[in-house]
Amino acid sequence: MLTFYHTPLSINSRRVWVALLEKNLPFDAHVVALSGDQFQPEFLALNPFHHIPVLVDDGFTVIESFAILDYLEAKYPTPSLLATTPEDIAKMRMVEMVTVNELVPAINPLTKQMMGFGQESDEAIAAAQQKAEVVLTFYADKLGDRPFFCGDQLTLADVVAGTFAPWFEALGLPMENYPTLQAWTNRLIERPAWQTTQPTQEDLAAFRDRMQQRMAAQGQ
Ligand SMILES: N[C@@H](CCC(=O)N[C@@H](CS)C(=O)NCC(=O)O)C(=O)O
């Protein structure tokens, strides 16, 4: 049996959550509140770095979302979320890595602004938008006119980039300039796996409150 330790709002968790659902795998979900649960000895025994997500499969523990995605593909290959041609495999990996290495740091000020965490300068916001647009242009180029990054089939490229996609508009990114990406986003958010894992407004409000309290306690 699979046990999935996660926090619904975490983007690092969500890519694994979506993959589990897309692969129709049954699993037990354990929510880790991240308000201290992650430092409990039982959780540290699973992940000494106190991060979610964690997957336990019949006593075998996997940490790091990308390691979990690799494990799921190897252990439960059907339906596959992997590209097949050399070009598509390269594209899939590029999109995954650009998402975590380029998009995530670029949108940090936009995320903080969207969540109401402090005041970002106009310059910081403009610079973040400009960097994020380089990523969106890259995505649009790699998507081309295909339904998903690697063709007709959903792959990990869509899972990893696509778990950010519903936020682009709210982050203040001009999606009207990227009609093919907007259509791809719409295609994804109709899928049951996206519907199931999309945070509600209440989830977001609770997260915002928790973070604001934590920042106030740290004198930020
Ligand atoms: N590289 C890790 C990052 C995991 C991560 O940063 N998780 C955050 C939530 S998004 C976390 O567990 N934070 C709690 C903590 O560090 O105490 C992965 O991809 O799984």
3D structure, described in words:
The chain has 220 residues and is α+β, with helices and mostly antiparallel strands. The protein is 55% helix and 8% strand. The model has no long low-confidence stretch (mean pLDDT 94). The structure holds glutathione (GSH). Glutathione binds next to loops.
How would the global form be characterised? globular
Strand content: 5-15%
What is the first-to-last residue Cα distance? Answer: 42 Å
Question: Which CATH first-tier class of the largest domain would you pick?
Answer: Mainly Alpha
Number of strands: 4
The number of helical runs is 9
The CATH architecture of the largest domain can be given as Up-down Bundle
The tally of domains stands at 2
Order of helices and strands: EHEHEEHHHHHHH
Largest sheet properties = 4 strands, mixed
What does the average pLDDT come to? 94
Radius of gyration: 18 Å
Proportion of residues in helical segments: 55-70%
- Which ranges are low-confidence, i.e. pLDDT below 50, for 5 or more consecutive residues? none
Bound compounds: glutathione
Overall structural class, as computed from helix and strand content, comes to alpha+beta
CATH topology of the largest domain: Glutathione S-transferase Yfyf (Class Pi), Chain A, domain 2
